[in-house]
What we know:
Layout: H1 10-32, H2 38-46, H3 50-55, E1 63-72, E2 78-87, H4 93-105, H5 118-123, E3 129-136, E4 139-147, H6 158-162, E5 172-180, H7 189-204, E6 209-214, H8 221-227, E7 231-238, E8 242-250, E9 255-266, H9 270-278, E10 282-288, E11 301-311, H10 333-338, E12 342-343
Parallel strand pairs: 5-6
Antiparallel strand pairs: 1-2, 2-3, 3-4, 4-5, 5-12, 6-8, 7-8, 9-11, 10-11
Helix pairs in contact: 1-2, 1-7
Amino acid sequence: MIVGSSHRRNAHITGSRRNALAHLTIQNLQHEQGLNQLASVCHTLVGPNSNTIVLQGGYMNSILETGFLRQKTQDSRKRALEYEINYLEEKHLPLLMQLQEVIVQNLARPDLLQSFSYDFMKRHLGPQGIVLGVFVQQRLVAFRNLYFPDPWDAEWNLGLDLGLPKEELGNVANLQMVCVHPDFRGNSLALKMNRLSIGLLREKGIHHHICATVSPYNIWNIPVLLSSGFRVARLKNKYGGKVRYIVHQDLRKPVHFDDQSTVHVRLDNLDTQQRWFDSGFYGVALKKRVDRDRKNPASGFDLVFKSPVSSHTAPFDMATPGWWHWPREMEDETVQNIYSAGHSK
Length: 345
């Protein structure tokens, strides 16, 4: 099941999940079997008119989750509002681009986000992707992109960066961009959308390698990804020279770690981190440092490294080391002002 803490409209979930899983099957067939079998699969999974419905995004009409969140107001008060998480369609593309621009304008560093062009964002709304959106009073306040890269795509198939075997590259899915409007930070919206996305992938079982990239200076999104079950596997230059962590989790064979091999490296000490990554260690958690520099928030954290010991076929256990929660003391005015928008990539 797709798990979450908010209220659900169960009458909608079954249909939305079924159609989204059909969407993943369709995308996989495009890689492996071609368009001749596509029409047959659509007919079987979601009905005789599925070619048009699925490929044009018409399957994305159901509500995945509802609940209440807090909005920050100009007088520093917070009010509770109802939200819905939905699959987005091509008609929502202008809203996606507008919210992306809000995030870009609020970045603490210009290299924190790799923005998407109109055409590339549009690809996430077709057979090669899924976009989840959070609506409050018919306003898009957050979104998460899920992308299924071609096996040979050197820019976007992060399995190539991780050195996955060729036969595994078709099983890679990326959690791409995540954006949360500054007024709605602090509601765990990115984490909610991550869990929905990963639950969908886990249930279908095709794309079991899930990857994402994040800036080492993005102290907002690193803990969200770690709390979503990811581990930091690589440090590389991507997207025209932007330094990025590549995070990964294998839904079939989660990695377990040796607690005796723990090493702490300051988050902005990338040279030392690179040596540990080259030695086969993974980044599994963040730990707050005492000597925090308010002008350089990344210097206030250590990335905790551990050495892997074995892999198992059991589902990922959210209670394993590395399940990281945002320290309550970090929710102060400095971080609120510096990192006023959620962003990944």
